[in-house]
Amino acid sequence: MFNDLSLKEFLERNHIDSDTWEKANIEWSTLQAIAANHEARAGSLEDLAELFAKVIQKFNGVHSVRWRVKNTEHLIAKIVRKRSEANPKYTDITQDNYSDRVTDLIGVRALHLFKEDCFGINEALKAEWSLVETPVAYIREGDSTDLKNKFTEEGFEIKNHLAGYRSVHYVIESTSRKQRIVAEIQVRTLFEEGWSEIDHKVRYPNLSDNELVEYFLGIFNRMAGSADDMGGFVLGLVATVSQLEDKISVAKKEKEDVFKDMELALSQLENVREQDKASRESIATLKIEIAKLKEVNQASPSMVGLLGLGSANVAAAALVGRGIMLRSTDTAAVAKASQSLANMSKLADMAAAAEASKSFANMSKLADMAATAEAKSKTMGNLLKKKFPSQ
Q1: Which of 117, 177, 182, 280 falls 20 to 30 Å from 166 in CA-CA distance?
Q2: Using CA atoms in the order 99, 102, 105, 109, what is the torsion angle rounded to 10 degrees?
């Protein structure tokens, strides 16, 4: 219990010198009242902290979540130091308002693997709770301009952390049993968490100024920062390798498709060659049949016409009857050839009819000439009778 401590014990345990205490200018009794109130509320604050942690654990990109309720002794030491620094938030602090002035009574820490994950977590946090203050992005000295610009675009206030580690801090508010609750949420990588834990263990609340300790803390700080950067590098490398694998997969599929197209083209060429062979055979057979039809036509043109060989269907049927299997294109050829033969037959019939008509005309002319000659003979006989009457 805090109230079991004397002022002297408190100052010694928290390394607060007399000068700092005098600048704080606060009654010990006021601090004891604040401590007693905080310890009385510890159970409800723990329940709220656990609730915040469960909500945050569900955010995309969050690896794990830690939470705590501020230690009473650390709370009182913080108030003393803030007042000694003349921080305006703490000038009139009492047991009635300390929960509004001290924003980290409940502390939740969300840990993630890669630096870039913090921006997705940022969106989820702002969607879930209202922010009391502008969020702060603590960066390392030497961090890239791109990272700083990204934080600025997202509305963060950028600060260089005194201990040299990266962390994003939020102060959110919620309501429990009609009472306003304020909590601090910190978001950082696992590497930064490891470094901050060691730094906090050594520096806070002791604030060691030992040069050798500072030297080794600086080394560890750089190592943690390098490990953090390596994590981001590996993430980028994985993304690049994944893109290359996708490209290789696409190229492989395209190659397989080309081979399939070539095989299909070869198959089609084989079919065309087979069809061409069958066509040549059909055409050769057709030529033979046409030659035979011509012979028949020359021998008896009128007979060809009477047989109806001018019909393309009959000609095609004749070829089929001979066992010749025709494709649609071959049938068309046969039809065309048969039509030509029909035309030839028709011309032959017309020629024969003309010849017969001509012979008939000549015979009619001879008959007319004979009749005329007979008439003239009769006329001549009559004249002779008149001139030489019968003696």
Answers
A1: 182
A2: 140
Q: Tell me the two tokens of residue 317.
A: 């049927």
Does this model's pTM top 0.85?
A: no
CA-nearest of 334, 321, 317 to 279 is 334
Distance CA 255, CA 257 (A): 5
Task: Write the CB contacts of 329 (distance below 8 Å, at least 6 apart in sequence).
Answer: 279
- Quick: pLDDT tens for 222-259: 777 777 777 777 777 787 888 888 889 898 888 888 88
pLDDT number for residue 287: 80
Secondary structure of residue 211 in the 3-state scheme: helix
Give the rounded distance of the alpha carbon of 81 from its chain centre. Answer: 55
pLDDT tens digits, residue range 97-118?
999 899 999 999 999 998 889 9
| Separation CA 324–CA 353 (nearest Å) | 36
CA dihedral (9, 15, 20, 24) in degrees, to 10, reads -60
3-state secondary structure 88-125: HHHCCCCCCCHHHHCCCCEEEEEEECCCCHHHHHHHHH
SS3 54: helix
Question: What's the pLDDT score for residue 133?
Answer: 92
* Residues forming a β-bridge with 183: 172
Note the pLDDT of residue 87: 94
User: Which of 283, 296, 235 lies closest to 113, judged by CA?
Assistant: 235
- Stronger pLDDT, 318 or 388, i.e. the higher one: 388
- Per-residue burial over 169-188, b = 16 or more CB atoms within 10 Å of its CB, e = otherwise: bbbbebeeeeeebbbbbbbb
Q: How do 157-160 and 179-189 pair as beta strands?
A: unpaired
Domain layout of the chain by residue ranges: 2-223, 279-387
Q: Which of 169-173, 201-205, 279-283 has the highest mean pLDDT?
A: 169-173
